[in-house]
Amino acid sequence: MTIDVRKQPGGRGSSWLAAVRDYTMMAALLVLPERWRARAFFEMRTARSRLTEDSAYRNLGYWKDDPDSLDKACEAMADLLGEAADLRAQGRVLDVGCGYAEQDVRWLELFQPRQIVGIDLVPSQVRQGRRRIAELGLADRIDLRVGSATELPFGDDWFDRVVALECALHFVTRADFFREARRVLRPGGRLALVDPVTSVDSGVSGYLERSLGAIPRGNVYSPDVYADKLREAGFVDVTMRSLRDDVYPGFAAYLARRLADAEVTDRMNAAVRAMWRQWVLSWQRTTSGRAAYVSKQDYILVVATAP
């Protein structure tokens, strides 16, 4: 059933002053240099723009087994990535783009790695993650730091696993991150990612899509090119699996329902809300919600090994 997300109640989050502020922040994404867009993008999507209900996950979710909430779908995505990375190896794990570190707490519980180090570009998210980790008494096992995925502040051969949960699309660039991940991994170490992949980059619409989504031009390519870039960075045994049909349809249906919720509309950043509404409307205009995304967008699970 198609759900109308075009007209929803406003509330405090839709006051003219808040709306002007929110849209000004979004407009900045169109003019900022690529290297600054990712931080601005995620600072705009603060806790009040969160789509989850009980957690601080920031991914589209894995909907294969019909979870009843985005929280459960996000947790399923984290579990899938943890299994693919083989975090049970009792080693040292680097989580790049860790956000609020919700998945790090989950991985520590499920897989018991010796240590997880998280790094993220957004200081406010790292601060909030640190507070929660301290409250849980896990500060000796999970270490969160502010830093860049493309200039990792660690020595060579330092980690047994490097993981990135739905964030490498925003790194400037993803290929630079691959080289850094290879450098910090020990021989035999594993890189594992879940990552949206887009191959559309044409005209004004392509520029707007990339700018508003904080996607560097250098990250726009097909899954085949993605695998080639991993090999060029020195990785071997590259495997890739499409998760598209277990991600986009379920998330689109959930998002349409969530944007019809007055509580979400009331508190959410107006610009972020408008972006998500457009995403749903675009999805609903395609045949069965698939055609456009089959041709231009994928969502992949990738595993590669450092020789």
TrEMBL record:
GO molecular function: S-adenosylmethionine-dependent methyltransferase activity
KW Transcription (keyword) present: no
Cited InterPro entries: Erg6_SMT_methyltransf, MeTfrase_dom, Methyltransf_11, SAM-dependent_MTases_sf
SMART domains (alphabetical): PKS_MT
Protein's organism: Kibdelosporangium aridum
PANTHER family referenced in this protein's UniProt entry, alphabetically: GERANYL DIPHOSPHATE 2-C-METHYLTRANSFERASE, ZGC:194242
Cleaved signal peptide residues: none
Any single biological process term in GO: methylation
Domain Polyketide synthase-like methyltransferase: residue ranges: 47-285
Protein name: SAM-dependent methyltransferase
Pfam family of the protein (one): Methyltransf_11
Alphabetic keyword roster: Methyltransferase, S-adenosyl-L-methionine, Transferase
